[in-house]
Amino acid sequence: METKVLTAKDYLNKEAIRAFFVGFGLPRLIISGFLLILFILAFIMKMDLTILLSDSLVRIGMNGLLVLAMLPTLVTGVGLNFGLPIGFICGLVGGVISMELNLVGFRGLFSAILFSLPLAVITGYLYAALLERVRGQEMMVGTYLGFSVVAGMCIFWLMAPFKNPVMIFAIGGKGLRYTLTLFQHFGKVLNNLLAFSLMGVVIPTGLLLFFAFFCLLAHLFFRTRTGLAMIATGANPLYASSSGINIRAMRYTSIILSNVLAAIGAIVYAQSYGFLQLYTAPLYAAFPAVAAALIGGATLKKATVSQIIVGTILFQTLLTIALPVTQTALRGADISEIARMIISNGMILYALTRAERR
Amino acid sequence: MPESYVLELKGITKNYFGTTVLKGISLSVKAGEIHALVGENGAGKSTLMNLIFGMPVIHETGGFEGDIFIDGQKVNITSPRQAMELGIGMVHQEFMLLPGFTVTENIKLNRELSKANLVSKTFGSSFETLDYPAMQNDTSLAMKKLGLSIDETSLVAGLPVGYMQFVEIAREIDKKNVRLLVFDEPTAVLTESEAEYLITAMRLLAAQGIAILFITHRLDEVMACSDMITILRDGEMVTSISRSNASLERIAELMVGRKLERAQLPPRAVEPHDQDLILELNNLQVQMPGEQVRNLNLKVRRGEILGIGGLAGQGKIGIANGVMGLYPASGEVYKDQNQIKLNDSKDALQSGMAFVSEDRRGVGLLVDESIALNIVLTSIEAQQKFLQPAVLPGVRLIDKKSVRSYTLKMIKDLDIRCTGPNQPVRRLSGGNQQKVCLARAFTLKPEVLWISEPTRGIDVGAKQLVLDLLVQMNREYGMTIIMTSSELTELRRICDRIALVYKGRVAGILRPDASDLEFGLVMAGKKTAKEVG
Is residue B81, in this structure, part of any structural domain at all? Predict the structure, then answer.
């Protein structure tokens, strides 16, 4: 008996090491390798690595929550939340209201979040009700719903009765501007919180902590009864319902959660960027987040917080590093935008076609 | 005259991964003969049929031994296509029809008659025009052979189920060279009158010289139409007799008959009796496709092991699924005189019942999750066990430590062979997966355990272990167990009483030591046995 337990344990260790490599996955190994090569290239070409690293860190914190918004729906098997623009717009509305009230600094940031929450919950519920009717096609319907909402909201931005002169068109006096600058309100408040410089690399401590805090919340959430019920719903709906879990409620909850995270993510994104971009700007908000989640190893059936974190880091670093490097390498030609499209959409394509096969 | 046989099988033996499912089967069918193949579930009927039809599954699993002769010629059938070319037609249990196509189009699919036109002269025969009049003519001819007239141009989608079956058959007999038709439980989905009609059609076909191999477990149909009857049991051919020599009772007995090995079970202090009921099902109806339960009444005694048996499709599987809320159900279920909400798994679980599903991978397990999570998740959700308070008031997280120690204990108690609590259940063998399912149910500490097909797809050693475990739980903890199984042997081995389900109702409740004859008759709906002690 004693020996049997011992061998089982040994096997477990080997298995654990193997599982780590299998779990990390080939795509991530390739991308990490590619990143390493890019860093070496950047070094050879005498580019300023500290700036590249600082930028990467900012982009990780800035996009992290939007990627985390993918997690709840992936876990319950609803799929990737391609309707991310819906939550994103709730965040924008919250931000605009906060600006209208002339709230500044952290008060501005948190009131923006506070204003966006009820909106995100309500729209999330409606969004969930729609997705419930189109089971099996959530991702496609989500994509087009997102597009439609962005278009519909263009009218809202024009018609909404906002009065703050810094927000509305200078000529005509009506309708919100395309881009609202946040510097007098809550621009970069998180980025600058406790920020410090380490060997030339600026660490946006507040921003990263904010992301980390939500990751921790998500991690804890999936250890609660509701969180576990969501995991079961995604892994096997029949097992879930035979365990007395209300599958429909779990799907609804996950979509609402995702919508709320997207709203908060949009505000964090805007404060880090320094601008609120309205009108058609949120149109493609979902794609980089989807790509990041998939690169992290999330599949349509299973996703974890760590995959979200890994994916965000890999994807955002790749974008930040790859563009200047290619730009410098191919002197003169402006291919940065094209390269960005190829990388992010290529990643989505790759990951989606692989995900089904498992 | 052996040369007059359309189909002859000699010494057919087939192994699936070391388990022999067919042992030395020999069988011959003459032209114009209706040959019935009867046997319980798992007797090897379907395997034999797959083999005749050259289904790929046979060759993928290592082929078979023995010879098949068609018209006295030895043949090696390697694909369904080849079987069709040899004149073997097959009528499936599930319809393989395109609902949006007309009857003619379905019958002629991929064998369309066509006429040349301008385009096809240039681009080849794939562009030829369909010759609808000729095809409709063929169709009505085939229908006439079946003694049936339906509009060839109507859509299959709108036809009654019985007619769809006939379209299937018409498609087979429309193939010009068809000499042997295999019917795989054709009446399973039909109403009684439709079934009667089908039998008539089969007789008509046989009269036209087509040999028919008729697979079924409905004995009255066998008696009604067949010329020869071959009985399979556990992959072995029991006998082949002509109908004139057979009687319903004899077939039933031959089908079921096997030596009973009822081990000496440990005695109880108080035997379960009718004065102390734990569960009462009144007028239970369950809408489970293929396993409908209709107006079923059943009383379960506290502390007994009740077996539920019956042939496939009669509704025995539906009972547990209905009571536990997995399929839409109506009627009344009382546990200890308290009515249980139907269509509500949570209420069923919280009233002290647990369910081990027959569909292990579909319902019973989260295959990609760990053993530990599989075992505890249901009790976390339904009973809020394995949770510990977290930092915030009102928030409780899974208690990984106690989950781990509990899982380790279950792994040891049930002898689950694995690398540890974190191993995904996908990598476990069938028997060990079943033990995980059992552990999941035991964790709920149920008073009543519903368990369906507990030994399906697991090896002999594990079977014995699972059955022993059930007896142990019953005797030590007084757990009432309701076990549904297609294997009469295992029901008779451990159950106190066995309820046999026929057409969605309890046809009779027998003692495990009742005669084979009695079991056979009640299962085939030929006799109702009322209560026994």
Answer: yes
Last residue of a domain, one of B445, B464, B492: B445
The structure tokens listed for B260 are 């009973």
State how far the Cα of A227 lies from the Cα of A220, in Å rounded to an integer.
8
Among partner residues A12, A236, A301, which is closest to B420 by beta-carbon distance? A12
Query: Residue B122: inside a domain, yes or no?
Result: no
pLDDT exceeds 50 at position B120: yes
Pairing of strands B480-484, B305-309: parallel
The Cα of A254 is separated from the nearest Cα of chain B by a number of Å equal to 17
CB-CB under 8 Å, B380 with A241: no
Sketch the domain layout of chain A as residue ranges: 64-355
B377 with B460, same domain: the answer is no
Q: For residue A107, what are its two tokens?
A: 């008060």
Residue B41 DSSP code: T
Q: Can you give the three-state secondary structure of B348-380, one letter per residue? A: HHHCCEEEECCCHHHHHCCCCCEHHHHHHHHHH
Token couple for B292: 């409908």
Chain A positions touching B363 (Cβ under 8 A) are 236, 238-239, 242
Residue B441 and residue B469 share a domain? no
From B396, B419, B423, residue closest to A224, measured CB to CB: B396
Question: Do B366 and A238 count as a contact with CB atoms less than 8 A apart?
Answer: no
Q: How many CB atoms lie within 10 A of CB B266?
A: 10
Verify whether the Cβ–Cβ distance A15 to B419 is below 8 Å.
yes
Whether the CB-CB separation of B254 and B219 falls below 8 Å is answered with no
Rounded to the nearest angstrom, the gap between the alpha carbon of residue A145 and the centroid of all alpha carbons in its chain is 18
- A224/B377 Cβ within 8 A: no
Shared-domain flag, residues B434 and B451: no
Separation in Å, CA A257 to CA A290, B399, B481: 16, 24, 41
pLDDT tens-place values along chain A, 358 residues long: 333 444 555 555 666 666 666 666 777 777 788 888 888 888 888 888 888 889 999 999 999 999 999 999 999 989 889 999 999 999 999 999 999 898 888 899 999 999 999 999 999 999 999 999 988 888 889 999 999 999 999 999 888 888 888 888 877 777 888 888 888 888 888 888 888 888 888 889 999 999 999 999 999 999 999 999 999 999 999 999 999 899 999 999 999 999 999 999 999 999 999 898 988 889 888 888 988 888 888 887 788 999 999 999 988 888 888 777 777 777 766 666 777 777 778 777 776 676 544 3
Among candidates A65, A58, A93, A60, which has minimal Cα distance to A81? A65
Q: Is the domain of B470 the same as that of B529?
A: yes
Please judge whether B366 and A223 are an interchain contact, meaning their C-beta atoms are less than 8 angstroms apart: no
- B16 and B2 together in one domain: yes
Contact A243 B349 (CB under 8 A): yes
Domain contains B512 = yes
- B419 and A8 within 8 Å at the Cβ level: the answer is yes
Q: Point out the residue among B344, B381, B420 whose CB comes nearest to the CB of A225.
A: B381
* Closest residue in B to A19 (Cα–Cα): B423
**A8–B324 CB contact, under 8 Å:** no
Residue B284, domain member (yes or no): yes
When CB atoms are compared, the residue of B377, B390, B420 closest to A243 is B377
Q: Tell me, yes or no, whether B323 and B383 share the same domain.
A: no
Residues of B in contact with A12 (CB under 8 A): 419-420, 422
Residues in Cβ contact with B329 at an 8 Å cutoff, skipping those fewer than 6 apart: B284, B285, B286, B287, B293, B322, B323, B342, B343
- The count of domains in chain B is 3
Domain that holds residue B7: 1-87+177-257
Last residue of a domain, one of B413, B445, B477: B445
**Minimal C-alpha gap between A244 and chain B (Å):** 4
